[in-house]
Specification:
The complex is a heterodimer of chains A (73) and B (449). Chain A is mainly beta and 73 residues long. Chain A has one domain: OB fold (Dihydrolipoamide Acetyltransferase, E2P), CATH 2.40.50. Helix content of chain A is 0%, strand content 55%. Chain A has no helices and eight strands. Chain B is an alpha+beta fold. Helix content of chain B is 34%, strand content 24%. Chain B has 15 helices and 20 strands. The chains are: A mainly beta (73), B alpha+beta (449). The interface between A and B is medium-sized, with 13 and 14 residues.
């Protein structure tokens, strides 16, 4: 079982959580939506698997490259 | 004339308005959120007030706080800049009720033009050139399909209460229509607090040509010709120029005069811009009207030598257009503006961060409008524009060359930015030839947006 770290591509604020621990996700699914500079940027998973952990909450600030979720393949 | 004006904004436009106020000898009040404390332009103001935390809704969009500063500072006027509360009719009315003049058109115009289908109806009634469109769509799917068929595919679904390209979705045929309407309604509801959407005929490879107008409180409206703002990404402007390249001069001038005539007949009373889309057939269609100063006002200022911010303030103070504007407005040379955005040029995603190096070009004749300085943070809380670079040449070719030189000399480190992407567009053959359209950036960069 591979553990995959999902990172935010941008610095911003967590607007919405679209997945929760235990959810089955497919490649390309949106896990989190980050808001930055008046844009909504989805954080996607490139791999299918099960959401092990969501490491942020709505309204949390996130930095570019920050791990925001963990997927178990 | 006003004795003290509050600038209810931030960044480049706050700096621009403060400069105008200083030149006019009017005392100024600047406001700043926690993120903007220490911003370089604040030093230009006579007084400054902190207005709370960084998020805009708690600071620059906080109407009660701003109205409180109107009272505390004894200002007799408020300049809203662009964005934030500049097109909020209720706020404009509250400023008036607090005894200060809102520098912009009367609230009824902000209200009338803020709702896109009502603005379209109003424009159509007064004989404005129009493209085909619907009213606000009903919830009934059959009626939505009928409205789209009446216009003819492809159509564009647009939020009625929106702007900035948010929630605009194309539908090529009937199979795409209902989903596009549903998604647009959802985005509109979240973005603008109204789920009303409407349809417009989708014009392929259109040009965005807009007309600058200025009205006074005495029944006069003049135009200051056009700007071409076709070069966009994500439906937001990146390169703007005046005059528009490769246009039929007689025809564009006739449209400009027609628009000024219509706005005068309607009684429009301050600064505004009528945005039009131009199809491949050269026909114009009304898009919307912005009832405020535009981000790209500088290119019009360069070619007409009219200071639009001062003109707007003087009009709001009750001066007559005849006293504000020269008898004959002429367009001299060619001006181009590039917006420098803090964004990843690969996907146009925002790129906030610290400006570890920020050295705008200092070449003679290059105008830079910015609210930033080296060492400042570009935060995720506001829009990504860090600077506007404006040049004015004798010809369009000279202006393009000058802008390329200026952007090459602009040193920025610490954030990703779009300078290389803008340079690629400026150097491209279609741009040089004046064959601009709203899809030019993705076409030149070879990517989808």
């Amino acid at each position: 079982m591979a553990i995959i770290e999902i990172k935010s591509e941008i610095t911003g604020t967590v607007w919405k959580l679209k997945a929760k621990p235990g959810d089955r996700v497919e490649a390309g699914d949106t896990l989190i939506i980050v808001e930055s500079m008046k844009m909504e940027i989805p954080v996607l998973t490139e791999d299918a698997g099960t959401v092990k952990e969501i490491l942020v909450q709505e309204k949390d600030p996130v930095a570019e490259g920050q791990v925001v979720a963990i997927i178990e393949e | 004339m006003f004795s003290k004006v509050i600038v209810a904004n931030r960044g480049a436009v706050a700096a621009r308005v403060l400069r105008a106020l200083n030149e006019m000898g009017i005392r100024s009040v600047a406001v700043y959120s926690e993120a903007d404390a220490g911003a370089p332009y604040l030093e230009m103001a006579s007084e400054t007030y902190a207005i709370g935390p960084a998020p805009a809704r708690e600071s620059y969009l906080n109407q009660d706080l701003l109205l409180d500063i109107v009272r505390r500072s004894h200002a007799d006027s408020l300049h809203p800049g662009y964005g934030f509360l500049s097109e909020n009719a209720a706020f404009a009315q509250k400023v008036a009720d607090a005894g200060a003049r809102f520098i912009g058109p009367s609230p009824k115009w902000i209200d009338a033009m803020g709702h896109k289908t009502r603005a379209r109806e109003l424009a159509a009634q007064h004989g404005m050139p129009m493209s085909q469109g619907s009213g606000v769509l009903p919830m009934d799917n059959d009626a939505v399909l009928a409205a789209a068929r009446a216009i003819g595919f492809p159509v564009l679904v647009k939020p009625a209460g929106g702007g900035g390209g948010i929630g605009m979705l194309p539908a090529k045929d009937e199979s795409q229509l209902l989903e596009a309407v549903e998604r647009s309604r959802s985005m509109a509801g979240r973005g603008f607090g109204s789920t009303e959407v409407y349809l417009e005929r989708l014009i392929e490879r259109p040009r965005h040509v807009e007309f600058q107008v200025l009205g006074d409180a005495h029944g006069s409206v003049a135009h200051l010709f056009e700007r071409d703002c076709s070069t966009q990404r994500r439906n937001q402007k990146v390169i703007e120029e005046a005059p528009g390249p490769a246009l039929e001069r007689d025809k564009v001038d006739a449209v400009a005069r027609q628009i000024a005539g219509i706005m005068q007949k309607m009684g429009y009373d301050n600064i505004g811009t009528v945005e039009m889309l131009m199809g491949a057939d050269g026909e114009f269609g009304f898009l919307e009207m912005n009832t405020r100063l535009q981000v790209e006002h500088g290119v019009t200022e360069e070619v007409t030598s009219v200071d639009l911010v001062q003109a707007q303030i003087r009009s709001a103070a009750g001066e007559k257009l005849a006293a504000i504007l020269p008898v004959k407005i002429e367009v001299i040379g060619h001006a181009i503006q590039a917006r420098v955005y803090a964004e990843d040029p690969k996907n146009f995603y925002p790129s906030p961060g610290k400006l570890t190096v920020f050295r705008p070009p200092t070449d003679a004749g290059v105008r830079v409008e910015t609210g930033y300085a080296e060492g400042r943070d570009v935060t995720p809380h506001y829009d990504p524009m860090v600077a506007k670079v404006i040049v004015h040449g004798g010809t369009r070719d000279a202006a393009i060359d000058q802008l390329i030189d200026a952007l090459e000399a602009f040193e920025i480190q610490g954030i990703k930015n779009n300078i290389q992407a803008v340079l690629a567009v400026l150097r491209s053959e279609p741009f040089r030839a004046g064959r601009v359209h709203t899809g030019l950036i993705p076409e030149v960069l070879g990517k989808k947006i």
